[in-house]
């Protein structure tokens, strides 16, 4: 119950407590920001903006248990606002140059067949690109960030049913695109 | 399993191997620090309610609370880490034994042996024991206190001192904290343990505390005197003398306070005609101006007279000196009564560099050079180190950089910040 106390302290305006709350789960926040922003530089900017917003708004948080999804929703909104501001979409090209580079270099260092892996990732990103934005987002959050339906619903501000249908439809389309071999 | 989900799972593995950059904590901390303090309407009345309750409590209990007679016990085994005032107090049995134990993650046993508290600070006595041995490095990292919390209490750590025994199995030490509330009956020590792999773990240990065993404040009164100095005012607000320490608090409103290091050193506290040793000073800026405190050792028990003497403090003097260059390197130029050595003038790829030396407390202001009839202001100052004169005086040597390549004819100085003797006294009445 340490987290709850830290949240209470953070609500009283304790900056250090807030910082420690984020640091305790820093990789998850960072990965989320990276997925949206596409590169480390912008992801870090988004996290800076997030923590300032959290600090300004945390006293409005009613339910301490919800800190995780609440703060992630704010992060996602910050990312989207930044992307909008820059009038820029994260396209396949961008991803292959930035985030993909990062993913590639990591996978290269760990797998025996780097070309195969990066090829596959490229393929996956390309496939995701064929989906509409909400479907792609929902699938990324569910499968790449391990969030449950309720959390995704909160993050994307739509009902749980919508999230489920987006994921279902998205997967269905991916399977179609992926070709016959996807049939079991 | 079907292929798409497999592919997504693979991608997730890749994403999971990404970790946040190391400088994330620093970046977030900086961003937060820059965020203006939040003021919530809700908390203000809560504070006032608490304040009203405290006032009521004080009115009822008055100053009686610490006056209950207390015959304490000595905390043994700390002679190596305490001396002077603290040792005397420990010998008189002013400590409060706690003896609360806990096993840390690496197997080391932590014992909070006792406390010594008063209105200026809390001193925590602790022991770390591990028959397997404690490394020098681990002695500070496996147990690093951050704060003590409790009823109306949130006190940050201030200083710490410890010593290892010859066998490297036991560390004994003390940490000092900001004072705790006289209404706290239980205190929680919050500390961090470093785990293998650079992980930090927050831990805590709660123990009972008896505020009646706090030592009584000997002198606590307002000073409320303002002293004019060259570039502003020093406002002395209060003095709080307890058996462990004496703290003078006040406000500064001075433009050039930060121009000279250790400016507070020139403020002495004289008790019964003898100076009391200064143990530290600090300042912090806040919305209401810059707050400062100066800490001195405890006051003598038979106090008859008390005064603050501002022997010297940051001052400013206007100058209008034009020094012809080059100036002899072995002869100082006099700026009123302060000496200035112009050691070297050279043209480098960065511009014109002039190496000068002054006494420790002198900082020049409005520096420029005249070259080819043109006035070129100081660009920046490079390197600063101490040099010694044959007579032992320590000088501060640094290099001034000017953005030009023309050999200068004159060095122009229009002012200096320095430690100026003020010799002003403020008497503090003693009842």
Note down, in words, how this protein is organized.
The complex is a heterodimer of chains A (184) and B (431). By secondary structure, chain A is mostly helical. Chain A has a domain at 1-88: RNA polymerase sigma factor, region 2, helix turn helix motif (Rna Polymerase Sigma Factor, Chain: A, Orthogonal Bundle). Helix content of chain A is 77%, strand content 0%. In chain A, helix 9 crosses helix 11 (160-178) and helix 10 crosses helix 11. Chain A starts with a helix and ends in a 6-residue tail after the last helix. Chain B is mainly β and 431 residues long. Chain B folds into 3 domains: 65-213, Immunoglobulin-like; 219-315 and 422-428, Conserved domain protein (Immunoglobulin-like, Sandwich); 317-419, Elongation Factor Tu (Ef-tu), domain 3 (Beta Barrel), CATH 2.40.30. Chain B has a 10-stranded antiparallel β-sheet, with no helix packed on it. The N and C termini of chain B lie far apart (87 Å). The interface between A and B is large, with 48 and 34 residues.
The CATH topology label of the largest domain in chain B is: Immunoglobulin-like
Top-tier CATH class of the domain at 1-88 in chain A: Mainly Alpha
Mean pLDDT of chain A: 76
The backbone outline of chain A, from C-alpha atoms, is globular
- Per the CATH scheme, the topology name of the domain at 1-88 in chain A is Rna Polymerase Sigma Factor, Chain: A
CATH class bucket of the largest domain in chain B: Mainly Beta
Q: Count the helices of chain B. How many?
A: 5
Number of strands of chain A: 0
Helical coverage of chain B, percent range? 10-25%
Task: Indicate the CATH architecture of the largest domain in chain B.
Answer: Sandwich
Largest sheet of chain A: none
